[in-house]
Amino acid sequence: MTAPGRGTVPRVLTIAGTDPTGGAGLQADLKSIAAHGGYGMGVVTALVAQNTQGVRGVHTPPVGFLTTQLDAVSDDVAIDAVKIGMLGSVTAAAEVTAWIARVRPPVVVLDPVMVATSGDRLLEPDAEDAVRELLAHVDLVTPNRPELAVILGEPVAATWEEALDQGRRLSVRSGVTVLVKGGHFPGDVVRDALVDATGVVDVVEGPRVRTRCTHGTGCSLSAALATLHAHHGAWVPALAEARAWLTESLEAADLLDVGRGHGPVSHLASLWRTAAPRTTPGRVAAEWWDEIAVVRAETDTLPFVSALADGSLHEDAFSWYLAQDALYLRDYARVLAHASALAPTPDEQAFWASSAHGAIAAEVELHASWLGDGQLFDARPAPTTIAYVDHLLGLAARGGYGPLVAGLLPCFWMYVDLGERLLAGLGPSHPYARWIETYGDPAFRASTDRAIEIVTTLAASAGPAEREAMLEAFRRSAQHERDFFAAPVLARPAPERVRV
Ligand SMILES: Nc1ncnc2c1ncn2[C@@H]1O[C@H](COP(=O)(O)OP(=O)(O)OP(=O)(O)O)[C@@H](O)[C@H]1O
Ligand SMILES: Cc1ncc(COP(=O)(O)O)c(N)n1
Hints:
Blueprint (H helix, E strand, L loop, with lengths): L10 E6 L8 H11 L3 E6 L2 E4 L4 E5 L3 H12 L6 E4 L5 H14 L4 E3 L17 H8 L4 E2 L3 H8 L7 H15 L2 E5 L7 E7 L5 E7 L9 H16 L2 H17 L1 H4 L12 H6 L6 H11 L1 H8 L2 H8 L4 H28 L3 H26 L11 H16 L2 H24 L8 H7 L2 H20 L2 H23 L14
Parallel strand pairs: 1-2, 1-5, 5-6, 6-7, 7-8
Antiparallel strand pairs: 3-4, 8-9, 9-10
Helix pairs in contact: 1-7, 2-3, 3-4, 5-6, 7-8, 11-19, 12-20, 14-15, 14-16, 14-17, 16-17, 16-20, 17-18, 17-19, 17-20, 19-20
The protein binds adenosine-5'-triphosphate and (4-amino-2-methylpyrimidin-5-yl)methyl dihydrogen phosphate.
Adenosine-5'-triphosphate binds next to β9, α7 and α8.
Protein name: Bifunctional hydroxymethylpyrimidine kinase/phosphomethylpyrimidine kinase
Catalytic activity: 4-amino-2-methyl-5-(phosphooxymethyl)pyrimidine + ATP = 4-amino-2-methyl-5-(diphosphooxymethyl)pyrimidine + ADP; 4-amino-5-hydroxymethyl-2-methylpyrimidine + ATP = 4-amino-2-methyl-5-(phosphooxymethyl)pyrimidine + ADP + H(+)
Keywords: Kinase, Thiamine biosynthesis, Transferase
């Protein structure tokens, strides 16, 4: 989706009553205007305490305040289109008529709201004449089947053809284009027709959507038409586009799960379908974990990991691995300390500092308890150790906090994952139980969860380039983890032994 250029977003004003549940009236109009690429503005005629089940009360502010609202908009903003919905009273209708006559907005659509879907009246009976007078000042009127009859002072049309005929006569009488709406006629196909005074009829058909959620369809359609006319400059393409949108919005309506009566349509369903999915820390975590699925599977099947799991790992190979781990931890601790230095918050600074302390303490512990004081072992860093450490030191040198902490994450995450699984299958006399317990430890899990939280929260709010750089650092560290586990040679020839 490209950003709209200057002057390409029509400024559309709705003059309507309210619906605090957001399905009809002014709230629905604003969503509809936005869904069609318009800038929505709203002047309130009446406050309606209603929900999807019915109307509980109507509060009409003094009509003088309606005028103040209308003037506040027109004194400041160039209006491209107006939609008029619920007027409620004679005085409100007369006031809006006077304002329209004065301001002469380029396009005016009148939805002559009289009765809600629930059956509650939204227009005082004596205001019907005032609505008829307003007709002379509008470009399109969108009555439903009963409203068409009331405006003409005739019985409700029994058939679609009768409704079309009523629409034609209303257009001749008022000089206004009439949208005859077929929502109230039975059948699998729903028809709407634009009828003008010359007798031209343009019918747009669509499937009837099987849903109870039709609250506010008339409001939403008329607001869509006002906005789309500002885009297209004509009613027929505006209606075709609005109808296709309304069908999609009705199809998605049940998913909203709003209210227990006639729910609202899903005004933004089409945008939500095509918009990029929202990035959340949880989604980043799931995607990144999935991203290294192959590397994790390769790690799990390494001979070293299998032998460690069943306890058959030769002591020499384990010692060699531990020595590499100790060498790695020295630099890993330095890089964690670097992350602490770059951290944007005291909390994160403390976390990385404490992790740095944990890593170097683990190195000291490895020496003391596993490698033995004065024990000889091959202490030169293996190529895999050098490569992993160089990758992390490179991230630290480049100075970006995001990629750096993303690169630090696999050492937490892959270890805790492996440690927990090894711990779950640990037999009673496993020779490396104590070492495995370090990584399956709940405290290490808690640190890992915090590291995941920090990194994924950062990635979720980062721009695409930064997020990709973070993912790349994470991916490469995961590969280094795998290679680190692949490095020990299980049946080792007598190694060259030096003292650390
Ligand atoms: N179930 C449905 N499936 C498809 N389109 C529908 C359905 N119900 C209504 N519509 C369409 O919604 C629009 C409004 O129709 P309707 O004739 O119900 O007007 P309304 O009574 O003014 O609406 P409201 O429910 O807001 O009072 C029309 O375009 C109509 O064709
Ligand atoms: C403020 C206001 N305006 C219009 C309607 C009609 O919508 P519906 O007929 O779908 O209830 C309404 N219920 N409330």
